[in-house]
Records
---
Amino acid sequence: MGLQGKGALHDVLGHRVFSGVTVADCGPRYEAEMPGYAARGVRAVSLDANDTENLRALIAEHDVVIELLPVEFAMKVGRLAAEAGVHLVSSMYYIGQSMTDPAIFRRMKAEMEAIDAEARRKDCTLLIAFGMDPGLDLMLGADALGRLDEIDHFYSYGAGFPEEAACDNALSYKFSWSPRSTLVSYYRATKKIVDGQVVEVPAEKLYAPENTHILHDETLDCDLECYAAGNCQNFAEMFGISGKVRNMNRFSARRPGHCAFWDVMIKCGFLREEPVMVKGAAVSPLDFCTALLTAQEQFWYREHERDIGYIRVEASGSRQGRSVRVIHTIIDYADPATGLTSMQRLVGFTVSIAAGLIARGAFKERGVVLPMAMPLDLMQGELARRNITIVTRVE
């Protein structure tokens, strides 16, 4: 029941697909919130995700699991759900897109394939990486690519940032998900495809001027500073377009000035995990930066301030010999009436909708399933009911 879990619970309760709902977490913070959940007809339990047997038993009592734990637990919960024959929706990849160690990749892939086989044998669905980004962006990407015979370029953007009125600190940025995870994502190597060739961008050069660009969004009427945020070699394989797409990249976006700041910070070593000695104590620069930014109110949303969730997918090429360009866009704002950020809406509502579709039998794919398999028309109406609009332009 972290930030995204609250969004998922709000949506599950609001749309009444399920007759019974259990939320699980652990720790003193959660215990203090239990009475509030009970008053809403929700069963609340304290559970440590490291406690495999209790976790297995809890999963087996239910028809669908929505898993929003830290990434290190995702595959474990998926394996237990498959063994129990219980459907599951997760916002996490089972194999991180920044994975570079080939031995670890092979081991994790073998485990995922075993989980897939078990889920198919037990006739259940494990829909993974199905939040905002990853999730909705991959679903929209599959739809856009499905409209093309030949692909010249495929670019996707997934981002969260403050609306202009909330840009009142030096970074023009505030946290709407884990600060540490945000900073970890700021310092990792990526891969892009340029003229059919895979090009690696080292972590140290992620924010260098040659690796960033400005995108002007007409709806927001503002410039967004974009930087690479994914391994396009892996994404091309996931979409089934390896060797077919000429140019491909995946980006995140921030208000202008963000990239220049973090380019300097990275070059100075502020996001490295390796500790340095400070007065006899070993201190990780990454942990220091996380603690420093987390502790300051200026980097958190105040009441009535809104974040913007931004997804844009752009594919161009040809269809039956004619040039075609497809652009899907989602622009969503926090909802002060419910107290939910846009990030909570786009992640939490998405996993909730998917859980409902699976429970009702509207989505029937079995095994470990990626967002590309989710038909756009199944999700579009449900998102619209929640005031989340997909705008499509075909040229």
---
Amino acid sequence: MDRRRSDMRERIRAVAMELFSERGYEKTSLREIAERLEVTKAALYYHFRTKEDIVASLSDDLRRGIDEIVAWAEHAPTGPERAREILDRYGALLHGVGRDMVRFMAENQPAFRELGFGVSLRYQFRVLADLMTAPDREPRAVFHARQALLAISWSSAMMGDLPLSDEECYAASVDIARDILARN
């Protein structure tokens, strides 16, 4: 039973993100999401009461994943190996659960700002860059670390029009991120 519930939640989130991309967050209704899924609004309400709840669930998954990276990094020895591992883990996170959230951020910026999920995500982003450059946190090194993280983040959202698979975009973004990080 829990597996079916989880599968339906994932389907709802995926369809909602498709519609938010096609029509925009503001112009998409819960009714349209339910229709695309071929379920009743009541079935949809069982899982999510509002559109905001759908986006919040994606944001929560992304934040939880970043928290796991931070927890790991805080106990790992500082240095270039830890920085590369943070990039790898961040890339895997965004390639998986974070991809829809990053696309939502890019394609629905006014709604993203209004919903207020960005503050905690920006803070976590900075924490990752700081962990990548600890203990010195040289400003130029932090700049490169943030740029490396951004290379991964934006490839999740901005490269969908290229004839590359998600795997190819993911691999290329991590390679580029490592190149940026190596500039220190």
